[in-house]
Design a protein that fits this description.
This protein is of the alpha/beta class and 446 residues long. Helix content is 28%, strand content 28%. The strands form eight sheets. Strands 1, 2, 4, 5, 7 and 9 form a six-stranded mixed sheet that branches. Strands 17-15-14-10-19 form a five-stranded mixed sheet. Strand 21 and strand 22 form a beta hairpin. Helix 8 runs parallel beside helix 11. The longest helix is centred in the middle third of the chain and has 20 residues.
Length: 446
């Protein structure tokens, strides 16, 4: 049974490294794939802001950074999922750099936020603009960010000393019932926005589930005939409550950690292209709804693990494409009423000034691909990626560098609704994003 959300308790802030993989024989002629898992507590201290500027007053359960360090030949790759709502621009690069330096030369870091809304949303470039104001809203402290970066670096350094070979990669999938539902729902020819607590309204709960991807996809690393780490990918906003000062990894964290205790296998959860997908049909904001969502997601994890088929590791490679999106115009003024509104305006203004490209990356394990996307991509981009390689297992993680906000197909701007209004880019981004996805997925081995 899923354990109830724990009462607030003090938790260790020490970086924790997962158990190393069991030594296993590699495939003849292929540089051995070696890996180690790591985790560290990234729960802010009391008073630091959660989304957007609400100070943390109570920790219901810890926020974790959970990752895997992979090495093949002279290259290293870090896949890390952060129990934060979002991380963007210079602060995103700060944590990437800290982990890369800790792992050593030729290291690529793919960092994704899980996107729980009871967690921080930090955009470094926006903070730089806000701190120039006479009365800036609450920003995450420099000392707090330095502490997070240091703990992540420590966890990665420990993992790098415990790398062990892995010999097989497994893939499995399972349908998740009554969790995800579309936020953009058409009712009598009219677009209706169903937010994450939409189930409070009986009419919203009655509307159809709408377009979703019902499959939870799982990639498993095996050593010596046993699973050593599982990566789960599912597309929905992982949000049952928001913005009240309580920190929590929400129902996805509860399911993930329960399954880890059950299996004794390290579990990482990554949110897919869920920009227009929420749990709104099934969530009324109650503790009962949260528990039921966690139970149903956990059932999907168990089923996907049971469905897993493995094959020998034949190669591991990754490709990255640069992505530049047209900025939104006009840029809202920073004198908006209310601290949260000023912060959101600063994020939009900072993205309009941005010069560094975003990145789209695909990791290739042969029959399986992992696609990492920035921002909050709408589900269409996940569907597009999977249709590009219909004979391959394509798992998608959104919520990399969060600075572009929602990444929308062009038609969304004609349809209206919430997502295009909260995007930091202008129409015309769709083809650029799809071109970058095709470039990285259809590499030499595609």
């Amino acid at each position: 049974m899923l354990e109830p959300m724990p009462k607030p308790v003090p938790v260790s802030r020490r970086a924790v490294v997962g158990a190393p993989f069991v030594i296993a024989r590699g495939v003849s002629g292929v540089p051995p794939l070696r890996a180690a898992t790591f985790r560290c507590d990234v729960t802010p201290r009391a008073g630091e802001p959660l989304i957007w500027t609400t100070p943390l007053t109570q920790t219901l359960d810890p926020l974790w950074a959970k990752g895997i360090l992979i090495e093949q030949g002279r290259r290293r790759l870090i896949l890390c999922a952060l129990d934060w709502c979002g991380l963007g621009s210079s602060e995103y690069r700060r944590l990437q750099t800290a982990m890369a330096r800790a792992a050593g030369p030729a290291t690529t870091v793919l960092l994704q936020s899980v996107h729980q809304h009871a967690a921080p949303y930090v955009d470094g470039d926006a903070y730089q603009m806000l701190r120039s104001l006479a009365n800036p809203p609450l920003c995450f402290s420099e000392a707090g960010m330095a502490e997070i970066a240091g703990k992540l670096a420590q966890a990665v350094r420990e993992a790098a000393r415990k790398l062990e070979p892995v010999d097989r990669i497994g893939t499995g999938q399972a349908r998740v019932e009554r969790v995800a539902s579309a936020r953009r729902v058409w009712d009598g020819g009219k677009l209706v926005v169903r937010y994450s607590t939409g189930g409070k309204d009986p009419r919203m709960a009655e509307l159809p589930e709408g377009p979703i991807d019902p499959w939870l996809r799982t990639i498993t690393f095996f050593s010596g005939g046993r699973p050593a780490a599982r990566l789960h990918f599912y597309a929905t906003h992982p949000q049952t409550f928001c913005c009240d000062g309580r920190a929590s990894a929400d129902f996805v964290g509860a399911a993930r950690e329960t399954f880890e205790r059950e299996e004794g296998v390290f579990q990482i959860y990554l949110t897919g292209a869920a920009g227009d997908v929420t749990v709104g049909k099934y969530n009324d904001g109650s503790e009962r709804a949260r528990r039921e969502l966690a139970e149903r997601l956990l059932a999907g994890m168990r089923a996907a693990a049971g469905d897993t088929q493995s094959e020998p590791v034949r190669h591991c490679d990754w490709r990255t494409a640069e992505l530049r999106l047209p900025p939104r115009s006009p840029v809202p003024p920073l004198d908006a009423a209310g601290p949260a509104a000023r912060y959101r305006a600063a994020i939009t203004a900072a993205f309009a000034r941005r010069r560094e490209p975003l990145e789209v990356t695909a990791v290739d394990f042969g029959s399986a691909r992992i696609l990492h996307l920035p921002g909050e991509p709408l589900l269409e981009f996940q569907t597009f990626a999977q249709k590009l390689l219909p004979d391959r297992f394509v798992a998608v993680a959104g919520y990399g560098d969060i600075s572009p906000g929602y990444i929308c197909p062009d038609r969304a701007y004609q349809e209206g609704g919430y997502e295009p209004s909260a995007s930091n880019h202008a129409p015309g981004a769709e083809q650029r994003v799809k071109d970058a996805i095709a470039e990285v997925l259809r590499g030499p081995s595609g």
